[in-house]
């Protein structure tokens, strides 16, 4: 089976309606170029790093104008759309970094809240505390679709291989990694981590990214990528400008890679490590 995908690299503004106006032409372009599945990056609906400005703007997914606009687009264009994430208000009033998979009828098939919070102090002096704003998820999510079985992850998740292994063991053939990666870590780690996750799991990895300098003065890396199960780069953008990245996925490559290197089957339980001192 062959799957044609379109990754939209965005430079999301600081409010939802502007974000929809920014993303819609790229989503339409991907669909016009034959994408069966269109993907957007993390925080596709709003990017605002000032917590006090962001929180009053957040809406539930059902009320968010970006999410509702993309649902309508999926129906109009007759395509699957994966909103890499929308920053939304949860049912309990807390905030969530939530990925939503939308079917061609406009319905939300499933959703995933980002598990791993980006709480870091970088050597450059930059710092981030996602946990100060967002409630982390507590479940891994994969979903069988007519396009193949998809596993959902978001950005910082890529540094936690156990999540990807669990998705692959559950049968995910394609794993999404929408991101708003910082520029210093993007330059150093973006490609190598994505290729590692593809190789370890024998899966396609689709990484739609935010790119460039945003209204809130945040800088993101861009360089959206599609990686095949053997680790080769299928398609890439070599810049951080808004653009569409198209790729053809041969899903039979998943079974071939997992058969050639059956590490998902060969793993063994173990105890320890035992700690000794000399």
Assembly annotation: single chain
Q: Gap between N and C termini, in Å?
A: 56 Å
Low-confidence stretches: none
Strand content: 25-35%
Number of strands: 16
What would the principal axes of the Cα set say about the shape?
Answer: globular
Order of helices and strands: EHEHHEEEEEEEHEHEEEEEEHH
Count of distinct structural domains: 1
Q: Indicate the structural class.
A: alpha/beta
CATH third-level topology: Nitrilase/N-carbamoyl-D-aminoacid amidohydrolase
As a whole number of angstroms, the C-alpha radius of gyration is 18 Å
- Architecture in CATH? 4-Layer Sandwich
Main beta-sheet strand count, sense and barrel state: 6 strands, mixed
Architecture overview:
This protein is of the alpha/beta class. The protein is 27% helix and 28% strand. It has one domain (2-260): Carbon-nitrogen hydrolase (Nitrilase/N-carbamoyl-D-aminoacid amidohydrolase), CATH 3.60.110.10. The strands form four sheets. A six-stranded mixed β-sheet has the order 5-4-3-2-1-16. The chain has a six-stranded mixed β-sheet with strand order 8-9-10-11-14-15, covered by helices on one side. The mean pLDDT is 96. It contains seven helices and 16 strands. Helix 1 packs parallel to helix 3 (65-77). Helix 5 links the parallel strand 10 (174-176) and strand 11 (204-207). The longest helix is centred in the last third of the chain and has 19 residues, at 183-201. The protein has helices at 16-32, 51-54, 65-77, 161-169, 183-201, 252-260, 263-266; strands at residues 2-9, 37-39, 80-89, 95-102, 108-113, 119-121, 127-129, 141-145, 148-152, 174-176, 204-207, 211-213, 219-221, 225-227, 233-236, 243-250.
């Amino acid at each position: 089976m062959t799957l044609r995908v379109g990754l939209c690299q965005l430079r999301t503004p600081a409010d939802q309606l502007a974000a929809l106006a920014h993303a819609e032409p790229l989503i339409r372009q991907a669909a016009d170029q034959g994408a069966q599945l269109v993907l957007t990056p993390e925080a596709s609906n709003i990017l605002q790093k000032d917590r006090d400005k962001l929180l009053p703007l957040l809406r539930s997914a059902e009320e968010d104008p970006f999410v509702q606009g993309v649902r309508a687009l999926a129906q109009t264009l007759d395509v699957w759309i994966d909103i890499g994430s929308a920053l939304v208000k949860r049912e309990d009033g807390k905030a969530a970094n939530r990925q939503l998979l939308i079917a061609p009828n406009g319905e939300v098939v499933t959703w995933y809240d980002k598990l791993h919070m980006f709480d870091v102090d970088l050597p450059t002096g930059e710092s981030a505390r996602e946990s100060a704003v967002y409630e982390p998820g507590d479940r891994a999510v994969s979903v069988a679709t007519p396009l193949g079985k998809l596993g959902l992850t978001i950005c910082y998740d890529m540094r936690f291989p156990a999540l990807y292994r669990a998705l692959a063991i559950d049968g995910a053939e394609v794993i999404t990694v929408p991101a708003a990666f910082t520029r210093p870590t993007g330059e150093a780690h973006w490609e190598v981590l994505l290729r590692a996750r593809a190789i370890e799991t024998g899966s396609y990895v689709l990484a739609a990214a935010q790119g460039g300098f945003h209204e809130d003065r945040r800088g993101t890396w861009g360089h959206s990528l599609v990686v095949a199960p053997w680790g080769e780069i299928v398609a890439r953008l070599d810049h951080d400008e808004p653009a569409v990245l198209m790729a053809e996925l041969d899903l039979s490559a998943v079974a071939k890679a997992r058969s050639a290197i059956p590490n998902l089957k060969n793993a063994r339980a173990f105890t320890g490590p035992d700690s000794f001192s000399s």
